[in-house]
Amino acid sequence: MTDHSPTTETSRYSTGERAAIIFSCMLGFALDLYDVLIMPFLMSSIQASLKISLTQVASVTSLTLIGSVIGGALFGWLGDRIGRKQALQFTLGVFAAGSIVSAFAWDYASLAVLRFITGVGLGGEWGAGMVLFNEAWNKDRRGLGSAFIQGSAVMASAGASIVGVWATTSFSPEWGWRIALLTGGSPILLMIFIRFFMPESKAWLQFDRARNSGLVEARVKTTNTLLLMFQGRLLPISIMCLAWMMAYMFCYYGIVVFTPTLMQRSLGTPPEVVRNISVIASIVGGCSYICMGLLNDAFGRRFGALVPGLAWAVMACALYAFGHEKFADSLFGFPMFWTYIAFVIGNSALGVVGTWLSEIYPIEVRSTAVSLIYMAGRGVGSLAPVVVPLAAAGFGGELATGMLIVVPAIVLFLAMTLLLPETRGRDLAAVATSRRAA
């Protein structure tokens, strides 16, 4: 008889297959974030080309993020029904096609609809890839691997800035932004790579065999996984996970979007100094992701989120104390430099998210839950760029004070970090015994 035990299933990945998995996940996440981050560099060109308002251009990004929430639910559900690999290919296809066609938008309405479709594709990529990675990877090294995947955000940020500036300065206002959006079609190449080189999750294949042969309860076959993740013991866990991720994203977008403006307009920081701060912060952030990945493998998932969360608390205190101190010709003597460094260290909490969520949820709802929770958080995060200016206006136009609206989100993030169950070392291959037929 063939042994389909969890240990046997997960140990049958070759070195090449594991390399293909982490390469695909890193590149997929980088392309996902690249497509979001390039838009700010194109806004002026789009506004001039389509003759629309700045508010309309900005709303396109919000619509993209709203689409990603729907995509997270849709492709997460598909990942639980047809497999992680197939769902990942479908989501990359929608993402790439939407980005390519967006380059040919002719007015605000067409651009809004096409970027919304792009967002739907974006919404499924992270969850499908992250779940497959965690089901395939050594359970003692998941934290580090996940940190590498999330750390690819550095490549996305650099690529978006390089391509965005190149396209808008090298071509006419009519064509520069279109050429930049066409580069968002590159996930098609990743789809081909995944089709031929990346394996399906053996944990999911094991579960699918058990489901089709009747070894798990019939309700797992028929129940909508979106509903299943909010039933029974999963209900309070799902509520906590949603609150946790929404709090993270609200804080992240509430600070990252406005810090350059705060430094330049409010604190008189020269543009080249802001650029240098961004470069140094990117290096520190990448190192922080890796360090936190190692530490959360050694000490637990809670540790990997709690320490960065405390760095955010330090950032908030520094923003309150020094958010009005002007730049005085010394980078290392500039309080906002150290405030921003504390912020990017706090960002590395995201490195543990995919692994922790994958370990929390049972295999039959794992893809749905991980995708929906992450993208719902991103959707709430998209509100921060609206809320922060309103808060600033309420405090007499002080941007630094307005940015402190993220403090409740930091407190909520830390509270949920303490309440979520510790899962380090959990086997992701096993079909939960509570789902087996009597």
From TrEMBL:
<dbReference type="InterPro" id="IPR005829">
    <property type="entry name" value="Sugar_transporter_CS"/>
</dbReference>
<dbReference type="GO" id="GO:0005886">
    <property type="term" value="C:plasma membrane"/>
</dbReference>
<feature type="transmembrane region" description="Helical">
    <location>
        <begin position="20"/>
        <end position="42"/>
    </location>
</feature>
<feature type="domain" description="Major facilitator superfamily (MFS) profile">
    <location>
        <begin position="21"/>
        <end position="424"/>
    </location>
</feature>
<protein>
    <submittedName>
        <fullName>MFS transporter</fullName>
    </submittedName>
</protein>
<feature type="transmembrane region" description="Helical">
    <location>
        <begin position="54"/>
        <end position="75"/>
    </location>
</feature>
<keyword id="KW-1133">Transmembrane helix</keyword>
<feature type="transmembrane region" description="Helical">
    <location>
        <begin position="234"/>
        <end position="256"/>
    </location>
</feature>
<dbReference type="InterPro" id="IPR020846">
    <property type="entry name" value="MFS_dom"/>
</dbReference>
<keyword id="KW-0812">Transmembrane</keyword>
<dbReference type="GO" id="GO:0046943">
    <property type="term" value="F:carboxylic acid transmembrane transporter activity"/>
</dbReference>
<feature type="transmembrane region" description="Helical">
    <location>
        <begin position="303"/>
        <end position="322"/>
    </location>
</feature>
<dbReference type="Pfam" id="PF07690">
    <property type="entry name" value="MFS_1"/>
</dbReference>
<feature type="transmembrane region" description="Helical">
    <location>
        <begin position="399"/>
        <end position="420"/>
    </location>
</feature>
<dbReference type="InterPro" id="IPR036259">
    <property type="entry name" value="MFS_trans_sf"/>
</dbReference>
<feature type="transmembrane region" description="Helical">
    <location>
        <begin position="369"/>
        <end position="393"/>
    </location>
</feature>
<feature type="transmembrane region" description="Helical">
    <location>
        <begin position="87"/>
        <end position="106"/>
    </location>
</feature>
<feature type="transmembrane region" description="Helical">
    <location>
        <begin position="112"/>
        <end position="133"/>
    </location>
</feature>
<dbReference type="InterPro" id="IPR011701">
    <property type="entry name" value="MFS"/>
</dbReference>
<feature type="transmembrane region" description="Helical">
    <location>
        <begin position="145"/>
        <end position="169"/>
    </location>
</feature>
<keyword id="KW-0472">Membrane</keyword>
<feature type="transmembrane region" description="Helical">
    <location>
        <begin position="175"/>
        <end position="197"/>
    </location>
</feature>
<feature type="transmembrane region" description="Helical">
    <location>
        <begin position="337"/>
        <end position="357"/>
    </location>
</feature>
<feature type="transmembrane region" description="Helical">
    <location>
        <begin position="276"/>
        <end position="296"/>
    </location>
</feature>
